[in-house]
Amino acid sequence: MDISLVIPLYNEEESLQELTDWIRQVMEKNNYSYQVIFIDDGSSDNSWNKIEEMANADSNIRGIKFRRNFGKSAALNKGFEAAQGDVVITMDSDLQDSPEEIPELYRMIKNDGYDIVSGWKKKRHDPFGKKFPSKFFNRTTRAISGIKLHDFNCGLKAYRKEVVKSIEVYGEMHRYIPVIAKWAGYNKIGEKTVQHQKRKYGVTKFGMGRFIKGYLDLLSITFISKFGKRPMHLFGTLGSILFFIGFVIAIYLAVAKFLFSVYKMTERPLFYLGLLAMIIGTQLFLTGFLAEMISRSSTERNRYEVEKEIGFNN
Q1: Deepest in the core among 100, 179, 256, 300, taking most CB within 10 A?
Q2: In this structure, are 213 and 256 located in the same domain?
Q3: pTM assigned to the model
């Protein structure tokens, strides 16, 4: 199979048929073999009924329904598990991503050898309250990750199949899939300017809460990628340094006490600073040791419940 389209959605019933028809036109025009995987992230409208109707009419359509809203990352992760195409393309369901971009994204993966191609909505049709945080977020992510992408938030991305089968996406980390992939060893990451359509139906699901969670996840993924498999390297090093500083202070005070007998050790503020350094150093060292043990038996982080599926037995 050439292409798997993974499309997470939440309360987007109005746009689904139009989007599916548009995708079908592009695929038939380019003679691609394909599947469209809709992941209904606990919608409260008639989105799932629409997906069932389309899947019954078209064998290329697949559907997965979550019992409740688990978030975009969980939806993408489940879609990646189900994807069978050589190239996996993600896009939003609100018609703001154009299926006309699919052939070039596919070509860049298959012919140019990219592992990931990320869309860049150079001209955005979003309110200022969404544009400004997005620019700040992208600048910070570029600085931390070293990946020169303009738009990490763009939902329109293409992946080599091996990439999506090698990574796990959870929390709010769908924004950082290029970062996750890079630290998994997939370094050929490209970018393509894509058209951003005005929202035709419904309302945006963006909120400041997602912005804050996104930054916390950026810190989390930076730590996990660098120290997730060796937490002792971070906590053990910091703990050892602090304990050594505290120990040196204690030795200095002990020598000063016996040589000069000017102050009692407990009367000097430096004594408490040294004691605090040794205590915190010991705690950090033990934290690193416990984290090392936990990392060897980590549990599954994606806990979503699939209520229904359709189209996967065709």
Answers
A1: 179
A2: no
A3: 0.73
